[in-house]
Structure formats: C-alpha cells, structure tokens
Amino acid sequence: MSTVLVINSGSSSIKYKLLEPESGDALASGIVERIGEDSGRVAHTTGDGTTELTDPVPDHAEGLRRVLELFERAGPSLAEAGVVAVGHRVVQGGQRYDGPVVIDRAVEAEIDRLSPVAPLHNPPNLTGIRVARELLRDVPHVAVFDTAFFHDLPAAAATYALDREVAATYRVRRYGAHGTSHQYVSGRVSDLLGREDLRQVVLHLGNGASASAVVAGRAVETSMGLTPLEGLVMGTRTGDIDPAVTFHLARNAGMSVDEIDELYNKRSGLKGLTGQNDLREVWRLADDGDPQAALALEIYAHRIRKYVGAYAAAMGGIDALTFTAGVGENDARMRALAADGLAFLGIRVDPGRNASRGRGERVISPDGGGVTVLVVPTNEELEIARQTVSLL
Ligand code: ADP
C-alpha cells in the first residue's frame, strides 16, 4: 500500500487526510482548530470513530505534533501506512507554477514571495509546509496550487484592462482559485460522459464559490480573479462589485483600505445581505417570510445564471453543467433556481432527479438531448494526493 498525507493549513486551522491515491480510499482525516486561541481542538477520524483533544494549541507546529501523536495512538500508524509523500494545498502559485512541484527552500521562498497577492492564504499555507517538513523529514513534500489549473487561461480571459506597466509591476492578473476542485470535477464529468471534447461549466458552490469554463479539459475562464473575492456571491464575500464602491466608501464613509477589505471579504455576500453566511439558514429565513433573505437567494442565483450564460457564449456553446461543493452537492432548491430560465441554452433540470437524495455522482437533467446537468461531489484531497504521486 502507498498513501499520501494531504495537508491544508489555514491561519488558525490544519485540515488533513491520509489517502490511498489509487483507490481513493481515505484511511484517516481530521482537523486542528482554533490554533493560537484560548481553547483548541483536534479531531482525528478513522474507520473506528473520532478521537478528540481539547487542550489549547499554541501554534501550527504543536498542532501537527498532536496530529502525529493521534496517528500513533488511534491509528493508522504512519510508520506502517506506507506514506510516500505529503501533499500540501497552496492557494497562490502565481505565474510560475502550472502544476505540482516538489518543495525545497526555493519553492518555499517563491510561495512567500507570492504572499502579497494571497495575503490571507499563502502565509498560513507556508507555515504548514515548514512545520510538516520539519516533523516528517523522510518523505518528499509536494505543493499543489489552487491556481495551477488556471495558469494557462487564454490571455483575453486572464488579463484585466489595466495599465500594462502597473499590472506587470504588481503582478495583477486573474489567477483564479479552487482550481484543484474544478480540475477534479471536470475530469470526472469527462470520464462519466466518456467524452474528452466537452464544453463544460463547473459551479463550485461552497462557502467560497466559483465558476469555471472548461473546453476539452482546458480551463478557458474562471470567476475568481487576482484573489478569491471576484465572481459569484459567496458566504461572506461580495463577488463582483464595481471597484468604484471602494473609492466611494474611502472618500465618503472614511473607511480605510483594511476596513473595506474586511467588509468585502468577511461581512458581505449572504452574511451581509441576511446576517447568515450558511445558505441553509438563508433558506430558513426566506421560508419564514423574510424578504431580505428571499432577495439574497435571488441575487445568488441571478449571478450564477449570468456566469453560465457568459461562459456558454465564451465557449460557443455548452455540453455539460456541473454542481459541486457544499451548496452544489446538497441544495436541490438552489440548483433548480440557478438553472431556472436557462432552457434557451438547452439547460434543464429534472425535478425528480434533482430532488433525489443520492450522495454520489449523478445526472439531474432529463434524458434526450440538451445539456447534461450533473452533481459531482468534489474531492480536492484526492486530486492533491494523485497529483502528488504523479510527480514522484
Ligand atoms: P467550504 O467552502 O468551506 O469548503 P463547503 O463546500 O463545505 O465549504 O460548503 C459549505 C456551505 O455549504 C455551507 O456554508 C452551507 O451554506 C452549504 N450547505 C451545506 N449543506 C447544505 C444543504 N443541505 N443545503 C444548503 N446548503 C448547504
């Protein structure tokens, strides 16, 4: 057996999964939460159940040390699990990385250098890499970048209409994000439909949300830009907004750049519109007659429809439309609302298939022509594990 330990290190959390890339089986998974806070938590799950530690976790190194202890205590023993590599999720790979790379000092330095364009993500990703390389010295560590799938976007899609020199000096372009998920899901759709030449739109609707257009396996458009702020309405992020709103707030509300950054990233989207960032809560409010919640659902679906239409135009047609991530996989009502009115593009959702409580990969469009509409659960960890071993 050969396995890969996949690590996703955030500012106050570390998520991990031990996987067998070939079969896709997960042997263990877990999370370290509230790193650096007064109360911490480590939860480690295997086939036998979940083991929990609730002491404070002062820093990432201590968090990972506890995870390694839990592997020894609750299993499976990492020494016996045939770990061939550690795969790290890294959000921003800039213009440099179009695929996975074995991490050395130079790669660490490059991830650090890219921090100004991913200030919320690359620094904690790098912290996770550094502590993991220190604690797991016998295996190679590989970085899998969230931007890599979008590295070769056509220039017309990747370039902002901004002064060329300013853009070049400050590396301003559309990098995209969630690329590992879009790559995995579009690949699955291609396999499921047995076609390589598909024109696909993938909707990754989680707390963060993004759309991509993929032609014959190659990404040609995506909704996230320089950072994951652009595009669809998200749990707490605005998605698309006129940049002049920023000037307006700076000049007239006296807000600083940092305050506006926080407003757009953490206090907007569904949360800003309704007070709730979880779409299930927004539905609950709307079902109870809250007009703001009903409007938020309309805004959310309207934005998705605009992107699907735009991407169909960019691809000269569309063969498959796929929903994934927390909302996309679970929320039949939002899927129906988002596809509503797109019949002119051949997009139809079969109500019975859409409402069926299946958890796996499934087609939800009616039989007989038109666009194939699917639900495909994403599996970013498996994609990271597979890309990691493909490199070694
Ligand atoms: P992340 O982007 O953090 O990885 P997920 O992909 O797990 O998140 O998506 C989380 C979101 O999915 C939640 O905030 C919630 O809005 C939504 N979600 C999960 N289950 C459902 C459901 N049954 N119905 C509607 N929304 C759901």
Automatic annotation (TrEMBL):
Active site: 146
Keywords for the protein's UniProt record, in alphabetical order: ATP-binding, Cytoplasm, Kinase, Magnesium, Metal-binding, Nucleotide-binding, Transferase
Reactions catalysed: acetate + ATP = acetyl phosphate + ADP
Subcellular location: Cytoplasm
UniProt-recorded Gene Ontology molecular function terms: kinase activity
Sites where the protein binds Mg(2+): 8, 380
Alphabetized SUPFAM superfamilies for the sequence: Actin-like ATPase domain
Highest taxon, organism lineage: Bacteria
EC number: 2.7.2.1
InterPro entries: Ac/propionate_kinase, Aliphatic_acid_kin_short-chain, Aliphatic_acid_kinase_CS, ATPase_NBD
Protein name, entry field: Acetate kinase
